[in-house]
Amino acid sequence: MAKNKSKVNKDAWLNTYADMITLILVFFILLYSMSSIDQEKFRLLVKAFTADPETIEQIRLLESDNQVDAGKPDAEQGGIEGDLIADIEDLNDLYLHLKKYVQENQLQESVQVEKGKDMVFIRFSSNLFFEADRAVLKSGGTEILDFVGDALGQVEPTIKYIRIDGHTAEAGRGTSTVDDRALSTDRANAVLKYLEDLYIKEPAKLMAVGYGLYRPVAPNDSEANRAKNRRVEILVAKTDSLQDELDKIYQIVDQADLDQADTNKDNSANNE
Hints:
By secondary structure, this protein is an alpha+beta fold. It contains eight helices and five strands. Strands 1-2-5-3-4 form a five-stranded mixed beta sheet. It is elongated and about 145 Å long.
């Protein structure tokens, strides 16, 4: 009778345990294959196996926040995403390239970039480039100007002109002996000369204008506002209606000169 008794397998539970471990492993492999690993969600998911309702709610809220963030542009970046543009072929590329550079380097307080019809507008605070009452480029300012100049050099074949405008601010009476018109012109020319020497192949596309204090963008009633008025602006345009009209006038004047020269030649021949 003792021999016919079957032995009890005390280790049979290990089979069930091994199956459970295998299923859990497969479960985590599936999770890994279906989504990128987020350490925070992974940590909370592991805790969720404790059936803690608070932990599960944290997972749900975290997932909701990520979905909302994915559906809206980056506020700090102004909706401009992606890397700097390697090959700048047109004004739109130039605008996006410069805008991204300003945002990445947190220069929004000192540099503004805007785009209009067939043109890109860049405004710099004068203190980026110049000391007070001086028109000599600062070494620190040339770093920004080098970046802009390289971009302008790439887009140069597709544009008609680059205009640099210099602006100063109205100082209190008796506080300055500087000629504002001359200072603004000298500053514009300093930027122009730097771009011409290093980046622009066709100098005829460059022009400089000094407006002095006569085109303010803010009232000259505080130092903060005067700082806004002290600026250098670069306008990059694809068309130049003024130059087109001037070219027509050149043709008329030149043709008149040729006709007059022919008339003088004929009169001289007849007199002989």
